[in-house]
C-alpha cells in the first residue's frame, strides 16, 4: 500500500520568503504526483500535476519537482504572499486509487 | 460553471439513522471518488467509480455503500451510521481516471451522535 508523508506538518514564514514543501512516497510505480491547496472550510484546488516522466512542472510562482526513483517531490513557492496561507497536500495515484499526504499548513506573515 | 456539488454541507444526526450524501458533477467525468478527512490522518479514499455501474473499494470502505447508476451522480450511503464516521467528506471527479487532475466538492461535515 502506498504511504505518503509530508514534512513539515506546519510552516510559518515572513512575506517574501521562498519556501519548499516536501512530499515522499513509498511505491514508485506512479503515473503522476499532484499538489493541491486546501483553504479552511473549502474543498481542494488542484495546483500542479507532474507526470512520472517529468522532472519539473511550473505554474506562476509554483514549481514542483519529482524524483520518482527516490520517492520524493518538492513544491517550491517563490516570493510568498499572505494569500498563499493554506494547507498544501500532495497526492499520488497508484493503480486506480488515490493516496494523500497529511499536508503542510502554511502561514505567511505580512 | 464546471463543478462538483455535494449535499448537504452540514449534517448532525444520530447513530443508526440511515443517511445519504449526494454528489453530482456537470463535467461528464467518468471517474468519481469519495474521501473522508480526519485530523492527523489526512484524506483517505472510501470508494471510487471508474464509470457507470463500476465501483470499487478504497482504503476505508467499511460502513459505507455507493452506487453509480448515472454518470453525473455518485451518492454515498451510510446504512447505519456510527460515531466513528463523524468526519469531513469530499467527493471528487476527473475526466477518465485517477491519473488526471481531480475536481473536488466543497465538502460535507457529518456529525453522528
Write a brief caption for the model.
Chain A is mostly beta strands and 110 residues long.
Describe this structure in words.
- The complex is a heterodimer of chains A (110) and B (113).
- Chain A is built from no helices and eleven strands.
- By secondary structure, chain A is mostly beta strands.
- In chain A, strands 2, 4, 5, 9, 10 and 11 form a six-stranded mixed β-sheet that branches. Chain A has a five-stranded antiparallel β-sheet with strand order 1-3-8-7-6, with no helix packed on it.
- Chain B is mainly beta and 113 residues long.
- In chain B, the strands form two sheets. In chain B, strands 2, 4, 5, 6, 9, 10 and 11 form a seven-stranded mixed β-sheet that branches. In chain B, strands 1-3-8-7 form a four-stranded antiparallel β-sheet, with no helix packed on it.
- In chain B, strand 9 and strand 10 form a beta hairpin.
- The chains are: A mainly beta (110), B mainly beta (113).
Keywords:
heterodimer; A: 110 residues; mainly beta; 5-stranded antiparallel β-sheet; 0% helix; 60% strand; B: 113 residues; 4-stranded antiparallel β-sheet; 11 strands; 50% strand
Amino acid at each position: 500500500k502506498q504511504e505518503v508523508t509530508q514534512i513539515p506538518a506546519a510552516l510559518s514564514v515572513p512575506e517574501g520568503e521562498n519556501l519548499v514543501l516536501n512530499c515522499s512516497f513509498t511505491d514508485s510505480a506512479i503515473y503522476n504526483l499532484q499538489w493541491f491547496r486546501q483553504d479552511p472550510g473549502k474543498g481542494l484546488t488542484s495546483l500542479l500535476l507532474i507526470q512520472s516522466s517529468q522532472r519539473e512542472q511550473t505554474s506562476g510562482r509554483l514549481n514542483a519537482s519529482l524524483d520518482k526513483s527516490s520517492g520524493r517531490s518538492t513544491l517550491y513557492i517563490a516570493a510568498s504572499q499572505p494569500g498563499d496561507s493554506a494547507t498544501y497536500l500532495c497526492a499520488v495515484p497508484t493503480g486506480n486509487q488515490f493516496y494523500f499526504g497529511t499536508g503542510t499548513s502554511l502561514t505567511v506573515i505580512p | 460553471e464546471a463543478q462538483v456539488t455535494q449535499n448537504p454541507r452540514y449534517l448532525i444526526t444520530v447513530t443508526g439513522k440511515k443517511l445519504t450524501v449526494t454528489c453530482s458533477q456537470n463535467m461528464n467525468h467518468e471517474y468519481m471518488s469519495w474521501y473522508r478527512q480526519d485530523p492527523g490522518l489526512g484524506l483517505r479514499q472510501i470508494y471510487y467509480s471508474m464509470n457507470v455501474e463500476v465501483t470499487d473499494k478504497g482504503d476505508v470502505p467499511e460502513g459505507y455503500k455507493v452506487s453509480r447508476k448515472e454518470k453525473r451522480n455518485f451518492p454515498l450511503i451510510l446504512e447505519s451510521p456510527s460515531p466513528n464516521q463523524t468526519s469531513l467528506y469530499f467527493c471528487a471527479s476527473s475526466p477518465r481516471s485517477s491519473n488526471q487532475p481531480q475536481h473536488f466538492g466543497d465538502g460535507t461535515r457529518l456529525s453522528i451522535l
